[in-house]
Amino acid sequence: MRTARIRRRTAETDITLSLTIEGTGKSDIATGCGFLDHMLTLFARHGRFDLAVTCQGDTHIDDHHTVEDIAICLGDAFAEALGDKRGITRYASTLLPMDEALILTAVDISGRGMLCCELDIPTEKVGAFDTQLTEEFLLALTRRADITLHVRQLAGKNSHHIIEGLFKSLSRTLSAAAAMDSRAAGEIPSTKGVL
């Protein structure tokens, strides 16, 4: 089973995160940011990852450091759990409807961190959550997981639905890309022989 446990302590956050790729979708999330808790719970459930996250962050300032550092830890956990990426599917995409929102995510577990993101979130806040932090989360995740991620919002007017659709789509896409490919057991999915 591919698992990882990450501990990150800085002057801004103290985070413990554990991830099991071949999970059942169970989660135990306490980040200090209610909307992020909701998104990570959905992420675990729809990707069938087991995910536990605790964070003590400087949320008296704002949620930026908490959101970014949790994404760093999640990216580190994926990179560690995937190891040399031998036998993985590598590529996947998901087109996911969330009410009026329609979100496309495509992932290459490439060993190269890159984000190409086209979101048009109409409000600055969802509850207390700063919607600008959505892209900050994705940037930190892609850099630390060493994945290429494309995100396209094809429709959507409700900020909550857009972000929720993104997290659900991303989790399903990462799950599919990380899945073992029985046709390529033991192989690195690259002509270079390394990812």
What does the model show?
It is a single chain. This protein has 195 residues and is α+β, with helices and mostly antiparallel strands. The chain has helices spanning 34-47, 64-82, 133-145, 159-178; strands at 3-9, 13-20, 27-30, 50-57, 91-98, 101-108, 114-118, 125-126, 129-130, 148-155. Strand 8 and strand 9 (129-130) form a beta hairpin. The radius of gyration is 16 Å and the shape is globular.
Summarize the structure.
The protein is built from four helices and ten strands; from the N terminus they run E-E-E-H-E-H-E-E-E-E-E-H-E-H. The chain has helices spanning 34-47, 64-82, 133-145, 159-178, and strands spanning 3-9, 13-20, 27-30, 50-57, 91-98, 101-108, 114-118, 125-126, 129-130, 148-155. Helix 1 packs parallel to helix 4 (159-178) and helix 2 (64-82) packs parallel to helix 3.
